[in-house]
Amino acid sequence: MHSDPALPLDGITVVSVEQAVAAPLATRTLADLGARVIKVERADGGDFAREYDHVVHGTGAHFVWLNRGKESLAVDLKTAEGRDAVRRLVARADVFVQNLAPGAAARLGFGAAELRADRPELVAADLSGYGTGGPREQRKAYDMLVQAEAGLIGITGTPDTPVKTGIPTSDIASGMYCAQAVLAALLRRWRTGQGATVEVSMLEATVEWMGYAMYSQMYSGRQPARMGLSHASIAPYDAYPTKDGQMLIGVQNDSGWRTLVTSVLEAPQLADDPRFTTNVRRVEHRAECDAAVAAETARWSTVELDERLANAGIPAAQVKQVADVVADPQLRARDRWRRIGTEHATVDALLPPVTFADVEARMGDVPAFGAHTRALLEEAGVDAEDLLRRGIAAEPR
């Protein structure tokens, strides 16, 4: 008889001194995969993200997104007793993650070198804005600021207006690279017995995501243009009007162009127009190409055009609002929503995008502030009642 399949990280314990987005996303990824994650929060209010807003039945949207499946330990790391309690938990953990201000973890006795001196098998991950060393090491590193420093804002928006992305891209990039690095380090430890010291920089994660734009700049000497919904190297590639809205259409090769104008738009005269026969020519004549496509797309409703494009295999999409995504039939058909608990209510949460065929992600509850403080202090072998009474630790009121 076979036992139920295990999640990949069952049996792994993570202690994380974390706040905001980047490190909490990394550790939530590990929790979803089965790790036990102990989230260390400030005793005087906890993770700042708890108070960004209260839109999810009294709990912050960021916090619900990033902290399911964790245990909350609220303790004052400025006290010797608080630090001792956390050190005791780290001494039994497999992974330690932190994203405090530069140098703060080391000053508190939680630097990777100090922790791994006693336990070389520990995986210690430091996540920061700009990395150790360099002129910006000590700078504040909020997501928007890093997007600016990485050049992302410089290529995002319209020709007239640069904008940041609508989601915290730098936080997400660094959080995902941090989780990836921890998994790699654990795999190596399984082979060698040795842990790892890992550093992840929000700046470097975001610059990596700049990808082709960075190489284009380096080897052409030209700043990539802000193109709005368009694309610097492809045409037609933009939003085009319909009778009642608009459709995004992206044609990446010449056969696709011919299919678009003949089968979908029923404008065969455009197929052999010398201005539009190749992608290079269409880019050179982008304004005329866009105008010609727009004149034809405006003949159909959005629903009609969407169906015609899909049937012809032309890459296209409607511009959806977030409410449309929440109700998206694709997500519903694939059964991607689950119910999880929060401090005040049960809410919907999306399964992580990685699906294992034999076992489902662990969709744990979002912890109330200090919900596990007493139990974790007792597990650490310290006097929980004393630390709670003295305000060194905190639990839900």
From TrEMBL:
<dbReference type="GO" id="GO:0008410">
    <property type="term" value="F:CoA-transferase activity"/>
</dbReference>
<dbReference type="Pfam" id="PF02515">
    <property type="entry name" value="CoA_transf_3"/>
</dbReference>
<dbReference type="InterPro" id="IPR050483">
    <property type="entry name" value="CoA-transferase_III_domain"/>
</dbReference>
<protein>
    <submittedName>
        <fullName>CoA transferase</fullName>
    </submittedName>
</protein>
<dbReference type="InterPro" id="IPR023606">
    <property type="entry name" value="CoA-Trfase_III_dom_1_sf"/>
</dbReference>
<dbReference type="InterPro" id="IPR044855">
    <property type="entry name" value="CoA-Trfase_III_dom3_sf"/>
</dbReference>
<keyword id="KW-0808">Transferase</keyword>
<dbReference type="InterPro" id="IPR003673">
    <property type="entry name" value="CoA-Trfase_fam_III"/>
</dbReference>
